[in-house]
Amino acid sequence: MLLRMVALAGYEEEPFTHAGITRPVYWRGEGPGVVVVHEIPGITPPVKAFADRVVREGYTVAMPSLFGTPGRADSPGYTVQTVLSGCIRREFAVWSRNAASPITEWLRALSRRLHERAGGPGVGAVGMCFTGNFALAMMVEPAMRAPVLSQPSLPFGLTRSHRAALHLSQADLTTVRRRLVDEGGRALALRFSHDWMCPRARFDTLQRELGDQLEVVELDSGPGNAFGISRTAHSVLTRDFLDQEGHPTRHALDRVLALFAERLRT
């Protein structure tokens, strides 16, 4: 409890319940709403730092805690523990190619609640790693206008078809595509070029299915790249982010904030 209070100082903890499921949500800021869906292993200091940046840009952040201990720093053991826990929980269908994890229904409901609270034309969402594709599934909710998929890693790349899959049903994909076209909207997808946890084949599928409605930011993490980015780099907006003018991760953040400005401040 003390760790959470200190690490998330400035955020208001408020539980949110939908369909009998209650989870803590951390709220902060004013202006149009953005749901920040944390990566493995939880709401770590780098995830909070990203949420803080969104707040400073003039948005209301709703940051649910889906797994892990809010505020706890990352470590190899903590990450492995959380991954194993997520693999056996019903809310997360980590191997599913053609259906979203059940938790996305709860996240859609949270999006509606955030829109009611923050107002504006709609809300945005950022999913990261384990939750990356959740942002696309949340686009089925009419309130969602600005989905950001940062290094989407589900389903786990067990086979070639898993690596190319979107963790989304065909019916939901059709709805998302129709909404993006009809509303002149865009989705944004981010990855490092050599990130094996977020396969290039998945981005090929995204580009094929969403076409001009998708903006891809792929950061060079290959050998000898100009910025010395590690080949193992994975978390574009958090652990591997460098807040330096001209750095590729800073460019990725700028594109995220530009999408929010374009879609949520109209």
Compact overview of the structure:
The protein has 266 residues and is of the alpha/beta class. The chain is built from nine helices and eight strands.
Describe this protein's structure.
- 36% of the residues lie in helices and 19% in strands.
- The protein is built from 9 helices and 8 strands.
- The chain has one domain: 3-Layer(aba) Sandwich (Rossmann fold).
- The mean pLDDT is 95.
- With 266 residues, the chain is an alpha/beta fold.
- The radius of gyration is 17 Å and the shape is globular.
- Helix 8 links the parallel strand 7 and strand 8.
- It has an 8-stranded mixed sheet, with helices on both faces.
Pick out the low-confidence regions: none
Secondary structure class reads alpha/beta
Shape: globular
Helix content: 25-40%
Task: Give me some keywords for this one.
9 helices, 36% helix, single chain, alpha/beta, 19% strand, Rossmann fold, 266 residues
Layout of strands and helices, then pairs:
Elements (H helix, E strand, L loop, with lengths): L1 H6 L4 E7 L2 E8 L4 E5 L7 H12 L3 E5 L11 H13 L14 H16 L4 E6 L5 H4 L6 E7 L9 H5 L5 H13 L4 E6 L7 H11 L3 E6 L28 H17 L2
Parallel strand pairs: 3-4, 3-5, 5-6, 6-7, 7-8
Antiparallel strand pairs: 1-2, 2-4
